[in-house]
Each structure stands twice: as C-alpha cells, then as structure tokens.
Amino acid sequence: MSILKEFKTFAVKGNVVDMAVGIIIGAAFGKVVSSFVGDVLTPALGMLIGGVDFTDLVITLKAAQGDIPAVVIAYGQFIQTIIDFIIIAFAIFMGIKAVNRLKREDNVTEEAPAEPPAPSNEEVLLSEIRDLLKQQNKN
C-alpha cells in the first residue's frame, strides 16, 4: 500500500475528523471564554478589589542602557496570569455545572423505561417442557 493511500485512509477515519472538529471548536470556545473573562469578569472584579493591577510589578535586574531594554523579572504579570487562570477555571466550572444540571433535568423528564415484553407462547411452552423434564429426572 502506498504512503498516499495509507495517509488517505488515516486522514478520513472518523476519529481524525472528530478530533479536528474538537480542536477547532475548542479554539473558538477558548476565545469566547477569554473574552468573557477579559471583557466581563476581570473589569467587574477589578472594580470590586479597587482596580488592583499586578502587571506593572517587576524586579529590575539591570537598568535600560540606550537601545538595550531593561532586564526585569515580571512577577506581577505572573501573578496576573495566575489570577486570570483561576477566574477562567471557575467560569468553566460554573458553565459545566450548569450544563450538567440541564442534563439531569432532561433525564428526569424522560419516561421510565418500558417493562420487558412478556415471553412469547413458544418460550412459555419450552419453559414448561423444561420444567416437566426436570421433574421426570428427579423421580
């Protein structure tokens, strides 16, 4: 089998296509969550905590010299990234919790599964024959 045929077989398998769709939707969902956090939650939380912004906190290791920029440890940016991660994780947790609640409500409204159908006449007759044979073997 040629390499091109093998690649075609691999590329059109359902799992690969499903994975590609999942990655694309995941990237789009990541943009939605980032926008929600950056444009909705972060400003509101910033207002609640007095407009604290950690991104400007740095430790300067070497001052700027002419065209050479300063060498800094941007620990404030790291702290801000951790806070953003916590906010995003909490927002995703709450979203998943809401989706799970909706799923549970959908499952409650579904009807209980129907009882299995009664055995057919043939099955009843075969069961009776089996029971009679067992009784004869005991005697």
TrEMBL record:
It is a multi-pass membrane protein. The chain crosses the membrane at residues 21-52, 72-96. It comes from the Bacteria. GO terms for cellular component: plasma membrane. Pfam families: MscL. It is found in: Cell inner membrane; Cell membrane. Keywords: Cell inner membrane, Cell membrane, Ion channel, Ion transport, Membrane, Transmembrane, Transmembrane helix, Transport. PROSITE patterns: MSCL. One of its GO terms (molecular function) is mechanosensitive monoatomic ion channel activity. Homopentamer. Channel that opens in response to stretch forces in the membrane lipid bilayer. May participate in the regulation of osmotic pressure changes within the cell. PANTHER family: LARGE-CONDUCTANCE MECHANOSENSITIVE CHANNEL, MECHANOSENSITIVE CHANNEL MSCL. Belongs to the MscL family. This is Large-conductance mechanosensitive channel. It comes from Denitrificimonas caeni. The lineage of its organism: Bacteria, Pseudomonadati, Pseudomonadota, Gammaproteobacteria, Pseudomonadales. The gene is mscL.
